Amino acid sequence: MWSRVSGWSGAVIGAAMGIGLIAASASSTPAAAQSGAPAQAGKPRAVLELFTSQGCSSCPAADALFVRMARDPSLLVLTLPVDYWDYLGWKDTLAQPAFTQRQRAYAKTRGDGQIYTPQAIIGGAAHAVGSDLHAMDQVIAAGQPLPLDIAVSESGDRITLTISGSAQTGAIWLAPVSRLRTVPIQRGENRGRDGVYANVVRGLMRVGDWRGEAMTLELPRSLARPGDADTYAVLIHSEDGKIGRIIGAAKAPGF
Fold it and tell me: Is 119 exposed, middle or buried (0-12, 13-18, 19+ CB in 10 A)?
């Protein structure tokens, strides 16, 4: 299913309480020599976001593929259900308007207007049909290692992000995640099917800014585990006033 959705209003930014920023001196760790090489421990070699919908008849194949891809520890795979197919007779139970806005923002940054499901965004820049493994593999293989290194640790009720590397300024985002969700779909184009989804994002919060120098950011652990979220990811987008290229990413411990 294809859709051109107009009227981008910007990505939703969540306000976060209890965030501490600590200046830190930290040396950069070497990046992987090639994007196809094994990633550093805890550092994904690629970030893939799947924009999908329970009301889209073309999406189950992509959903199943992303469940399989999520088992690859070198990838950070995220599912972001959108709400613009709800009018077809089934309201997506996992969709959030912020995800639709994020997909629109990517299309606006690229300038191509391509908004559809299932759509995979790779590295915050390129896109491909979410069920086309070959196309996604080609983009990953042609990509460069993420320039920023993010170490994530937890102690008590605090999360600590230690960020180092060399890159332009950026915006730091926290994405709470539910690792596996199964939804019985009762109406619409997928009526009678169970939708199975991996790493479903349950919120998006801008929690800080990367200013091009080593830093440590502290967050309350509760911020990363709202509702049914059982883990989280951290993304850093290059900061040019738009949602676009991802320059750093990390998974929570045990993710």
Answer: buried
pLDDT tens track, the chain, 255 positions:
443 333 333 333 233 333 443 333 232 222 332 333 334 446 899 999 999 999 999 999 999 999 999 999 999 999 999 999 999 999 999 999 999 999 999 999 999 999 999 999 999 999 999 999 999 999 999 988 999 999 999 999 999 999 998 878 999 999 999 999 999 999 999 999 999 999 999 999 999 999 988 999 999 999 998 889 999 999 999 977 689 999 999 999 999
Number of domains comprising the chain: 1
Q: For residue 199, what are the domain limits?
A: 13-28+42-251
- Residue 187: count of CB within 10 angstroms of its CB: 13
- For 71, 91, 170, 251, the CA distances from 74, given in Å and listed in that order, are 9, 33, 23, 10
Task: Please tell me the pTM assigned to this model.
Answer: 0.84
34 domain residue, yes or no? no
* Residue 61: partners with Cβ closer than 8 Å, 6 or more residues away: 118, 131
**Cα gap 44→179, rounded to integer Å:** 17
- Whether 76 maps to a domain, the answer reads yes
| Domain assignment of residue 148, yes or no | yes
The answer to the question of residue 2 being in a domain is no
CA-wise closest residue to 83 among 126, 117, 49? 117
Q: Are strands 148-155 and 158-165 parallel, antiparallel or unpaired?
A: antiparallel
